[in-house]
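To: structure subgroup
Subject: Chain for Friday's discussion

All,

I'm putting the inputs and outputs inline so they're searchable in the archive.
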Amino acid sequence: MPPARKRTRTYDPVRTRTAVLAQIGNVRAAVGALTVDDLARPTRLGDWTVAELVAHLGEALAAVDRFVAAPEPARQDLPLPEWPSAASGHRAAGADAAREASRRHPDPVAHLADVEERLTRVLAEQPPARLLATDAGALPLADHLVTSAVELVVHTDDLNAAVPGLDILYDRQALAAATRLLADALAAKAPGASTEVRVPPFAVVQCVEGPRHTRGTPPNVVEADPLTWIRLATGRLDWSTALTGAMVLASGERADLGDLLPLMT
């Protein structure tokens, strides 16, 4: 008997839209309290300052205007779980681009407010199924919003790491969407059913070739909290450090994900 076909995860476009706009608001409110010195702080993204990171985030979210203005693709050519690896190969936001974005938008709060307003307008005008020719491939607007949730959550964590005491809140649905997409990206990269990766309370996926588990406790299990998983998946945290620091639990001979991570950078 052939193996059961895995069901593709779906996302409620209304909940995703609400989550993305809420997280933009969370970031905008926190950035509004930053001082000039805070904005000049370095981040863990190499040469980027906090101001440059905020400008980059705004530019990434505002790209939906450019995608909508372009002709609609004939068909979707990028499955959503493959977006993280595809996006890694199409990122144009190096340090120079981030600096240029920061020069174009010297007021980061006004920039984020403008992005929020424009995105709200686009989402009111365009149907969720509208295909967009994104830099990584053709995606429905609803799926593109899920990728926006990943961008927001990952860079919220970057900002919190850069400014002591900043503590930008995470919208629960945005955090859930980011966790689930990156978990599904692992399953797409390493298909199989020998290892179960658990990120409670948001995601459980099976991956890695090997003997298929059918009942009882899986022989190979990896478990992490959502932010730890997101940091591992995006290269903010390396596998060996996470294991040594007991930030991730891994049991079984096929539970070593070190060669599979990160999923995107």
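Points worth raising on Friday:
The longest helix spans residues 141-162.
The mean pLDDT is 93.

D.
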